[in-house]
Amino acid sequence: MPEHGHLGQRTGVERADVPEAGPPPAAAVRRTGLLVTLLLGGLTATPPLAMDMYLPSLPEVTDALHAPAATVQLTLTACLLGMALGQLVVGPMSDRWGRRRPLLAGLVVYVVATALCALAPTVEFLVGFRLAQGLAGAAGIVIARAVVRDLYDGVAMARFFSTLMLIGGVAPIVAPLIGGQILRVTDWRGVFVVLTVIGALLAALVWARLPETLPTAQRHTGGVGEALHSMRRLLADLPFTGYLLTGGFAFAALFAYISASPFVIQEIYGASPQTFSLLFGVNSVGLVIVGQINGKLLVGRVSLDRVLGVGLLVVTAAAAALLLMATGTFGEVGLAPVAAALFVLMSAMGVTLPNAQSLALLRTKHSAGSASALLGTSSFLIGAIASPLVGMAGEDTAVPMAVVQLAAALVALTCFMAMCRPWNRRATTEGAGS
Q: Closest by alpha carbon to 266, among 50, 64, 69, 66?
């Protein structure tokens, strides 16, 4: 696939509903481009904000709602499941009606659902409201990727995904820290109040500042049938499906960490919510730094497939080390070695996740919304399955987390080698949508 660079370079974005009146001044172009980048980063940050700000309060929710840890972890699973299923709906909608309208509708519902989470009287209500929150929050995730595909191609798209990882990576760094500080002055319900305010501000900014990026001429008009046909065509492309599964199972290893680490770090190793938040933030810094190395130094110089393969090997090695420590192979270990292995695993995600997404999206020029929906849905569904598995053996052992992470990493590596055929350059560059 040819590398066209920034397709919206003249205007920052293309408006489908406003005729062009000539190129704007260069300074205005730069401001528009930066603002759109920040908005897309904010939309990309929706999942870590909804997940990670809430993490330090999981033990408190367990006590406050008189629910077992496994049931409280279902609040994470419900949100993740909602984000997965919501993308299947919103992605094709954005291919038909443009990016703006479905995005704004999703953000409004997200704000309402988040406010209801703060009022949940029981854990069952909280699970239901979190499901609704995830369904609505899916709009920001899937449409942000589709907008990137509207504007970028080739190496430029891979670099932009790394930029989004920098912006979105700030969220998991600050979210647990904010969550831990909120717990100093209020309870877990206050976390959802803050999330409601953030969602409302993001919706207002999108309404005021994010223009349409999908021209009317490029929109689909065939309805559900055409959307399903487009998805079937994408899934029939073996390398696309391989990258989809590779990224999905890598995300499962990441989400096993997100779901289990509050209990592993706080309950098993006795860390405070603030210490857990600090460690989580350090791990997120590693992910952001490696993501920036990927975007600034590796992309365009080293094959994306090669970088992705190395990232998968590092994730597998880190998960194996965690399992050996959890099973006592090295004797009784403290928090520091476990935290180090988790840091390596999280950092490797900085090259694994954006490159898997870029390589998949490079295989389709059209139906970017449907392709983005498939990528997001697969990741969140697989992650939702991984979440309850890490709590099956209770709160006193880290073995389930390590087992799930290692199994997911091995499956991701197998899918990459067997389906993407990275040694076959022609197979990995000829897209399903070309």
A: 69
**pLDDT for 226-278, tens place per residue?**
667 778 888 888 999 999 999 999 989 988 887 788 778 888 877 787 778 78
How far apart are the C-alpha atoms of 258 and 253, rounded to whole Å?
A: 9
160 with 38: CB under 8 angstroms?
no
What are the backbone dihedrals phi and psi of residue 201, each rounded to the nearest 5 degrees, phi first? -65, -40
Return the amino acid letter for 119: L
Place of tokens 């349409």: 212
Whole-number Å distance between alpha carbons of 52 and 258: 8
* Contact between residue 34 and residue 187 where contact means Cβ atoms under 8 Å apart: no
- 289 exposure class (CB count in 10 Å sphere: 0-12, 13-18, 19+): middle
What is the amino acid identity at position 310? V
What global pTM score does this model have?
Answer: 0.69
Name beta bridge partners: 299: 302
Contact 214, 150 (CB under 8 A): yes
The residue type of 260 is A
Question: Structure tokens of 317?
Answer: 């090695």
> Which of 70, 51, 42, 12 has the alpha carbon at shortest distance from 204?
42
> What's the rounded Cα separation, in Å, for the pair 141 and 143?
6
Q: What is the dihedral of CA 31, 32, 36, 39, to 10 degrees?
A: 60
98: left (phi over 0), alpha (psi -120 to 50) or beta: left
pLDDT, tens digit, 9 for 90 and up, residues 357-415:
889 888 876 677 788 788 878 887 887 787 778 766 556 677 888 899 999 999 999 99
- Cβ neighbours, 10 Å, residue 344: 18
Neighbouring CB atoms inside 10 A of 15's CB total 12
**What b/e readout covers 228-258, taking b as 16+ CB neighbours within 10 angstroms?**
eebbebbeebebbbbbbbbbbbbbbbbbbbb
Integer Cα distance of 69 and 75 in angstroms:
10
Question: What sign does the dihedral 302-305-310-311 (CA atoms) show?
Answer: positive
* Closest of 374, 371, 369, 433 to residue 100, by C-alpha: 369
Distance between alpha carbon 106 and the CA centroid of its chain, in Å? 17
In a 13 Å sphere around the CA of 300, the CA atoms on its Cβ side amount to 16
